[in-house]
Design goal:
Layout: H1 5-65, H2 70-73, H3 80-83, H4 86-102, E1 106-111, E2 116-120, H5 137-143, E3 149-150, E4 155-156, E5 162-172, E6 175-185, H6 189-236, H7 250-304, H8 307-335, E7 343-346, H9 347-357, H10 359-364, E8 368-374, E9 377-380, H11 382-399, E10 405-413, E11 416-423, H12 451-461, E12 465-471, E13 474-482, E14 492-493
């Protein structure tokens, strides 16, 4: 028995990839989760902070617009910033105060055509167009309709920082005549970037910890699996004597136990096979030797014309051939795995049939066979059970003295049925009781030593067992069987 090299290689490759698979199983879902969660949290935080900044800037713009006189704003014309008119200076002073107090970058006022009325922080001249307004056309349309608004996008200033603009309408006599724009820095992006980097670092650490856990888990699984693999390879190479070590892990422990059961079964079968081969060789040698001897004598007698002696030699050869045939049949019956053909069998009928098949042998030895059986129905293979009982009764008849008695008793026992074969012969010596169920062990000159092992094999195939019960003056072989679901043990018959 040997294990092909490709199978060994596949087993080792499977164990080698276990770590990689566990790493992938641990890390890939976690990595995907961290990326999706980090992206979602970052986007949500940015959206919330942008909305908050836009609301703050538009609120500052609305507060400023409430202090701007729309009527006076309309009187400011290009060149007033150069001339420094009072109206223009007052408006610039207001915007400067708001800028300083609000900590914003730039404030400016435009008319409904988008031309500068006053600009603090951008320093555009009166009447100039503000380029940034082209970016916020949608927001300005809302402002000129009487609502305040904030730009939807951040823009980068000349200093490299990101900014946002809030707008509010300037009214005159209930009509919108312009707008106040407030530009503020998106300073929250600094802490948000730090938070993002911190999250990345924490994610990397978490992935490292998970990788370590995966490696340790893979190693913890790989070691018992490798031991299990080594045991399987040993069994595959023919080593059936080394036990499979138990494993503490429940699932792998179950595999180890089942593999050990398989090893024990293979070892037992291998041992039985060796015993059977040795027994067959030993048993066959004797009749073959006898056949060779008597056939030689037969040839000599035929040449000498001694036909009477030749007839006796032929009879001896025939008896040796019959014995040889019985050895072969017993060996095949014991070695063959016969599937059970279960059917309801009446226990009393089974015992009566086994007794009847040996009536002639019992009468020849002047032995009485008595049958006493409780009524029960067995779900069993009737022919195989009959063969097992015939072996037991035959042994009992042969062990009984002339004029002796053999009892064949069937009794219901709870959920089972026990069949006992009793005789009053010399019994089984204590030194031989442990070996009587070994194949080819016999104390008879013409016995094959397969009767008791075959009977026990049949009993165990039915879910029962066969054992020896030795008492002073009485030898009993007890065959126990499960009872059919439809059976109902009753009184004795026989």
């Amino acid at each position: 028995m040997s294990t092909p090299a490709p199978l060994t290689s596949r087993l080792k490759d499977a164990l080698g990839s276990l770590s990689a698979r566990l790493l992938a199983a641990f890390l890939l879902p976690t990595l995907l989760f961290l990326i999706l969660a980090g992206t979602a949290v970052y986007a949500l935080a940015r959206s919330i902070l942008e909305d908050e900044l836009g609301n703050s800037l538009s609120a500052i713009a609305a507060a400023t617009a409430s202090q701007v006189s729309g009527e006076r704003m309309l009187t400011i014309e290009p060149g007033d910033d150069v001339a420094g008119t009072r109206t223009w200076r007052n408006l610039v002073r207001l915007l400067t105060e708001v800028r300083d107090q609000g900590g914003v970058r730039r404030l400016y006022v435009v008319d409904t055509r988008g031309r500068v009325i006053a600009d603090v922080g951008g320093e555009l001249p009166v009447g100039a167009e503000v380029p940034e307004l082209a970016r916020d056309r949608l927001e300005l349309s809302r402002v000129f309709s009487g609502q305040r608004a904030a730009s939807q996008v951040l823009f980068q200033g000349s200093d490299g920082l990101l900014y946002k603009t809030g707008y509010a309408p300037v009214r005159n006599a209930g009509q919108v005549v312009g707008a106040v724009a407030v530009e503020g820095s998106a300073a929250f992006f600094g802490p948000l970037s730090h938070l993002s980097r911190g999250f990345a670092v924490a994610s990397t650490v978490a992935l490292g910890v998970l990788a370590l856990v995966a490696l340790l888990t893979a190693r913890g699984l790989a070691r018992p699996l490798r031991r299990l693999m080594d045991s399987a390879l040993r069994i595959g190479r023919g080593d059936l004597t080394t036990p499979v070590p138990p494993e503490p892990t429940r699932e792998i422990g179950v595999l180890a136990r089942e593999l050990e059961v398989m090893r024990e079964a293979l070892e037992s079968r291998d041992r039985q096979l060796k015993l059977m081969l040795a027994g067959v060789a030993h048993e066959v040698r004797n009749p073959i030797g006898g056949i060779s001897l008597f056939s030689g004598l037969l040839a000599e007698d035929l040449k000498a014309g001694a036909h009477a002696d030749a007839s006796e030699h032929v009879s001896r050869i025939q008896r040796e051939v019959e014995y040889l045939q019985r050895i072969v049949e017993d060996f095949l019956a014991f070695a063959r795995e016969q599937p059970l053909s279960r059917a309801p069998v009446a226990a009393p009928d089974l015992l009566q049939e086994a007794s009847g098949l040996l009536a002639a042998d019992a009468a020849a030895r002047e032995v009485t066979v008595e049958v006493e059986a409780d009524v029960a129905v067995l779900e069993a293979d009737g022919s195989l059970l009959t063969a097992a009982l015939v072996n037991l009764v035959k042994n009992a008849v042969q062990a009984s003295p002339r004029g002796g008695r053999v009892r064949l008793i069937g009794r219901g026992q709870g959920h089972g049925y026990a069949i006992r074969v009793e005789d009053h012969g010399p019994g089984v010596p204590e030194t031989e009781r442990e070996r009587i169920f070994e194949p080819f062990f016999t104390t008879r000159e013409k016995g094959t030593g397969l009767g008791l092992p075959l009977s026990r094999k049949i009993a165990r195939a039915h879910g029962g067992d066969l054992r020896l019960v030795q008492a002073p003056g009485v030898t009993t072989f007890e065959l126990t069987l499960p009872v059919g679901a439809s059976s109902s043990p009753g009184g004795p018959t026989g």
